[in-house]
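Hi support team,

I've been running sequence recovery on a batch of backbones for a student project. Most finish fine, but this one hangs at about 90% for roughly twenty minutes before it completes. I'm not sure whether the input is malformed or the queue is just slow. I've pasted the structure tokens below so you can try to reproduce it. Let me know if you need the job ID as well.

Thanks,
M.K.
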């Protein structure tokens, strides 16, 4: 991937590694597509040095739920055009393709993208290639072909996507769909990327109790009726805020992860504030970026999503972890990515924080005021792909 086989340095006024906890001035030594040293320099000869005097230098950002698919998905986007230049160097596809279209997805997206793309394979053999819900036709769910595809492509397929929304399922019973997904997951020892059903159709308790350690619940801060908050009698009596549902807390205790999945209808400022105020933080932040986002007047991005969580009280260090080391560990791609340590891939993102009071919006029009992170430098596999104020080709000259 790297086009740069020379030895070079990045000296940053602030370098932050969420894995080691280092936060301060630092130097990274890069050779080819690898970080070969952090903090000290062992090169006898350095070809180029680049100085970063503002912002923070992080490992390349990881988006655990988006729709990178250059072809054959109604939600698909080009990850290099829409995600990489905004600081996301690794992305997980939420079910854009199924087993019957796997080869095409690999050849048209994974193999040709500079962005590192992993897949939560759709339980539907056709993925999201049709305009209707992916599970409307139960005959398109073939557990054995899904198992075989995962077994033969473990380098790229992380787990199984199962979104139980009414749109996705149509008239197909969501209980039956989840059972088929669990059969595949158990047979392949892989996790689920799970989207909840409306609770009036199927109780939150029953859904959460079926999930296992390592599974990921996405859309964790969306509004009712598929919401993680629940009224407790003692809170209703005094008119206080809703609380995080006990079954959600129990799921986290046994190892279930919770992901943001912002999207067009899955992030609510009030739900986020109430959960964070109670100490319930999302394990990972993700954009659920898909085709309809490409024409928005304000660029939908992972740094903007991070800014919204900062505005509702999530601490900076927790935000940085949620887009670097935590998703890297969930995807089982650390130590390749997610840290700024020797032998990691040289995926890097420099973020500048504009502390002017920006108006930040959730999908429902609610607003909060806060600063905003903006990507200034993005490096993928040792090669610059964005450098604000200079040509990426000339970054290290």
């Amino acid at each position: 991937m790297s086009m740069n086989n020379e030895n070079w340095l990045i000296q940053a006024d602030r370098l932050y590694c969420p894995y080691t906890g280092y936060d301060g001035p630092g130097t990274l030594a890069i050779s080819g597509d690898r970080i070969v040293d952090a903090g000290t320099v062992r090169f006898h000869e350095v070809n180029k040095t680049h100085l970063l005097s503002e912002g923070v230098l992080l490992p390349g950002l990881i988006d655990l739920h988006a729709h990178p698919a250059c072809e054959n998905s109604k939600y698909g986007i080009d990850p290099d055009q829409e995600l990489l230049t905004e600081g996301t160097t690794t992305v997980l596809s939420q079910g854009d393709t199924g087993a019957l279209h796997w080869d095409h997805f690999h050849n048209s997206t994974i193999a040709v993208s500079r962005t590192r793309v992993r897949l939560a394979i759709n339980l539907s053999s056709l993925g999201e290639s049709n305009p209707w819900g992916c599970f409307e036709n139960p005959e398109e769910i073939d557990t054995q072909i899904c198992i075989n595809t995962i077994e033969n492509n473990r380098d790229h397929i992380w787990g199984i996507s199962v979104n139980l929304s009414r749109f996705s399922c149509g008239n197909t019973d969501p209980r039956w769909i989840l059972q088929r997904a669990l059969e595949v997951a158990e047979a392949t020892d892989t996790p689920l990327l799970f989207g909840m059903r409306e609770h009036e159709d199927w109780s939150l308790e029953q859904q959460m109790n079926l999930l296992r350690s390592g599974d990921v619940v996405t859309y964790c801060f969306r509004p009712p009726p598929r919401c993680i908050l629940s009224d407790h009698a003692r809170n209703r009596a005094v008119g206080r805020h809703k609380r995080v549902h006990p079954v959600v807390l129990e799921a986290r205790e046994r190892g279930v992860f919770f992901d943001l999945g912002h999207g067009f209808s899955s992030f609510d400022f009030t739900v986020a504030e109430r959960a964070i105020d109670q100490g319930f933080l999302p394990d990972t932040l993700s954009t659920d970026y898909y085709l309809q986002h490409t024409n928005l007047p304000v660029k939908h991005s992972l740094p903007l999503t991070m800014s919204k969580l900062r505005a509702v009280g999530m601490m900076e260090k927790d935000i940085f972890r949620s887009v670097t080391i935590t998703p890297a560990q969930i995807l089982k791609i650390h130590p390749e990515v997610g840290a700024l340590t020797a032998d990691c891939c040289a995926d890097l993102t420099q973020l500048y924080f504009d502390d002017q009071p920006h108006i930040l919006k959730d999908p429902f029009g609610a607003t909060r005021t806060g600063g905003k992170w903006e990507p200034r430098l993005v490096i993928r596999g040792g090669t610059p792909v964005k450098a604000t104020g200079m040509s990426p080709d000339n970054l290290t000259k």
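--
Follow-up from support: It reproduced on our side and the slowdown came from queue contention, not your input. Confidence is low (pLDDT under 50) at residues 232-240. No action needed from you.
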